[in-house]
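All the exercises in this workshop are built on plain-text protein records. An example says more than a description, so a record of this kind follows:
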Amino acid sequence: MMKKILMTTLLLISACAQMMAEDADSLYAKDLLKPGTVAPDFMLRSNLGEMKTFSNYRGSYVVLEFWASWCPDCRKDMPRMKALNDAYRQKGVRLMGVSFDTDFDKWNGYITANKLYWAQVSELKKWKKETAIDTLYHVNWIPSYYVIDPEGRITLATVDLTKVEGLLARLDADGTLARSKKPEPVVVQPQFTGGNEALANYLSAHLKYPAACTKAGAAARVVCEFVVERDGSLTDVRVSKVSDFHFTNAKVSGMTKGTRAKLQEECEGCFKVEAVRVVSEMPNWTPGTQDGKPVLVKYHLPISFSL
């Protein structure tokens, strides 16, 4: 008897959950484009500065996510979006996030902090007042999701991520994803013109050891992050990490803990400034390529400061 009651309760919970999902779509997804519609093409700038053309994603299943970093429901769904990306990117499914953020730093900061490693684009304009993409895709609620097939037609339009998860699971189970997967494009990484030896020679000739760091006997490893543009120029140069910091001057060990900490902070700041300067002044690199065409590539370059 208890088993029957338990089974009945579980079925009721499942039915209620399904009704809630259907109610959410009936309330908030009724204006979304209908399945079978050709997904409208668009071109928007990514957080890395690259213009993304949506029609270039033809040939793959695509999950198109409309969101914003200020949206609580969007943030709640984001761990599941990351799980989808991890589960299906090797199976040919591509994700694109379309954000209604207006502040680049907040938008990009959220992407970076949460490691959202799929294409992210935005108009950086006020939703429903200045944006065009919401009109194109009839987005009146976020988060909203579309699943688009390799021919560019909408397969699913919903505000319920559970439906996206279910559809992808079915497409995977019946072999559809495997049959539609495109070969991975060949990506050739950018490089300093002349190769690693030329890069080492350049750094040796142009890197200036900060005077304060020389005096203190400070040493460290600084990782510079930047974007290699299609023409080989370097943009968005910044320091992503400082590690292996230490003092070689014996006199520093006799300082108080607070004085050493202050000196370390000063020296780390000097190392960061110099690393950004030397990278920013580099000549153009040989750009990265994908399928033989130049592409934007984010690059990490470690620079050692040692006496």
About this structure: The domain at 24-184 is CATH 3.40.30.10 (Glutaredoxin). Confidence is low (pLDDT under 50) at residues 1-17. The chain has two domains: 24-184, 191-305. The longest strand covers residues 234-247.
